[in-house]
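[step 3/7] inverse_fold.run input=structure_tokens len=277
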């Protein structure tokens, strides 16, 4: 019976150099040829999903960690911060001297010199966990199409990401905005390099449930694949949960199957193990 496969992007389908391993692309193509549906489930906004991923032939995406849902180019859900909420967050981040960018379906809107101020964090992101070696990756490689100089007081933003100078910045943001969803993201495992502030009361599992209702099916046919703590609700919700080998222990603990790392054919191995290909 065809399955509905929900794939996290970074650390699962895409490595920390923003590349899709050849074996992962092959696995997705073979699975879709066998009649399985595949959706991206990511913290990324729509403009942050490169064409190379759409070229794999995926059926849609869940973005903003659950605020945005798309199926076959049809928008099923698009939740955003109000203009007042966005303005409040932008003002606070500016006061704290924390470089940031706004994630909207219309584009990625960056604070002044975000590409320069976030370079160290992007290098750490690419290294996987901390600055373990030199890298040529740039902010614009990870976030192509950043828009500078635009009005940052907007009503179409689903999430705002900002560079953490230290973990206290995340704790301060969480205390400042208890009415919003505040999280972290970064490199391998749970290493926090950036904070994000977005629409409250959403997660990847809630969004999957909304999509399943739209598709008029249920979770018995679902498979979730992820590598980070933000993926845990998705993995707990899906009928079969797969953790990448580069996942931290708390993610592996909720998995039915643990596969290899993203760069060591992990996705292909998982699909083969589950009989999808």
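[step 3/7] decode complete -> sequence:
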């Amino acid at each position: 019976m065809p399955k509905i496969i929900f794939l996290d992007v970074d650390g699962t389908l895409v490595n920390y150099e923003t590349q899709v391993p050849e074996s992962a692309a092959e696995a997705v193509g073979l699975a879709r040829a066998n009649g399985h549906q595949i959706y991206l489930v990511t913290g990324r906004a729509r403009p942050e999903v490169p064409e190379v991923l759409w070229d794999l032939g995926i059926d849609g995406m869940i973005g903003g960690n659950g605020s945005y849902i798309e199926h076959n180019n049809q928008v099923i859900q698009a939740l955003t911060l109000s203009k007042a909420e966005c303005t409040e967050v932008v003002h606070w981040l500016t006061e704290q001297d924390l470089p940031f960018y706004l994630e909207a379906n219309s584009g990625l809107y960056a604070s002044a010199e975000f590409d320069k101020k976030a370079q160290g964090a992007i290098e750490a992101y690419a290294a996987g966990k901390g600055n373990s070696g030199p890298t040529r990756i740039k902010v614009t490689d990870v976030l192509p199409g950043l828009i500078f100089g635009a009005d940052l007081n907007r009503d179409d933003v689903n999430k705002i990401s900002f560079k953490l100078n230290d973990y206290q910045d995340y704790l301060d943001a969480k205390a400042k905005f208890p009415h919003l969803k505040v999280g972290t993201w970064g490199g391998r495992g749970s290493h926090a390099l950036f904070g994000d502030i977005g629409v409250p009361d959403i997660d990847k599992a809630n969004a999957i449930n909304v999509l399943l209702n739209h598709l008029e099916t249920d979770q018995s046919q679902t498979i979730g694949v992820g590598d980070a703590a933000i993926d845990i609700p998705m993995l707990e919700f899906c009928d079969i949960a797969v953790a990448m080998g580069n996942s931290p222990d708390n993610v592996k603990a909720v998995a039915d199957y643990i596969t290899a790392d993203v760069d060591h054919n992990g996705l292909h191995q998982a699909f083969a193990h589950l009989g999808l290909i």
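[step 4/7] annotate
The chain has eleven helices and 14 strands.
The longest strand covers residues 157-163.
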